[in-house]
Amino acid sequence: MQKTADELKISYAKVRKILITLGEYTTDFSLEVGKRRSMGKSILEIATELNTSTNRVTAFLPYEKNLYNGPELTTDAKKSEVYRKRIKIAREKFVNRAINKDEKRNLSIGKEKFMTNECYNNTNAFKTVHLHLELKNDHLDDAEKEILRKYGESSTGDSISRNILIPSDMPLHNLHYAIQRLFGWQNSHLRRFVLPEEIYNRLTGGTVKGWADLVGILFQPPVECEHDVFWDDDYQSGSIKTWLKKKYTGPYFFHGITEDYEWAQNDIKQLIERFPILEVKESFSDYMNRSKGKDKAEPRIIKKAPLIELTLEEMNNSITMEGGTESLLERLEVATVLAFKDEDVCNDNGIFPVTHKLIYNYDFGDDWTITITKEKDCNELLQKGYISKDELLDAEATVLTKHKPICIHKDGVFVLDDVGGLHGFISFLKEIYEGEDKEERSNYKAWAQSLGWSKRKISNKLIL
Known about the structure:
2 domains, 23 helices, globular
């Protein structure tokens, strides 16, 4: 497995997890955690029962969001099976949940304080919004930058970017599908929208209470709700590009159950009630520094306190939140969340706009990261000759008449799924353009084409 990991330039753990998913590798531990997971138990429950860490449990479970039954399956067949499973689980998991009237009444207290300027004002009017999306890795070396510049058509050598116009009423949820098409992915992995760390800390105050107050307003609830995020993933067969287009074209509707304010706050209420007193553990780094050379050292308990009184760091050191605490609600409109560069954020008049930069994270293994900003105009693109005035007018008309986004500038080629992030993509480019083994180059190209990748040039206006 280590040799395979080295050759494919992925981690040993990822190779093992893929083999477990394919049923080609098992251990007593993997069989035990698999059995308990099939019984509907959460990763945290399994870890507690087996007296181990959630990370170890996760490492020995098969992939649940992107399944492969064998090489004979086509790409479409693989994705069809994944989506059918997601839909089935979502229905089973959420269709019967309910909140009683008293809870609803109590949870509504304070809702207006935070949501007064959220733009849900039932109007058919919308305008165009200019976004810049930049896929970047700050740790590329000079040789990698040269490859990305030479073969990846990146002007900077360290990033791939897109400029798009979107309807002002587009939610984050639908922007996700547009991003998939813009960069060449096929919606095969988990994703999330998050805030820059400094904005997140400013809004929450770094406390459980500060975060909890914003769940259902800004942040997704703590319930294991990742299946509900996929409520709209109903792909069955045919062209993935056509399917994506339907998702990022308006009118926009959001039907994710757990993003409802009352539902989200009820989940917070249940979490807080579950831990009236929590043993707060030392940080992992403190534990590692203290336990060097001690095989059976236990994490130190530094205090006991109600969960609601803790800092977020203390909570995360002590319990595992499978979905994290940073993911934004996908029903929020992009234009509402994002501020222009010179615009105030988190002002006294309300919580929105929240940030000057939005972060889109896709495939937590490959860890693709895109920074999204809102631009006031297209003057820079016009001045550099990337787009003409007539082309810009046509693009704006397309957004307004067809209620869909349009790409107005592209810097860099399309990437693809499961290639190993930007580092892996650069290695892929080097192999297919400079590799000495003709058969190996051919195999790489065939694999990439099976994931929808192509070197064919596409006009910007036809990408979306």
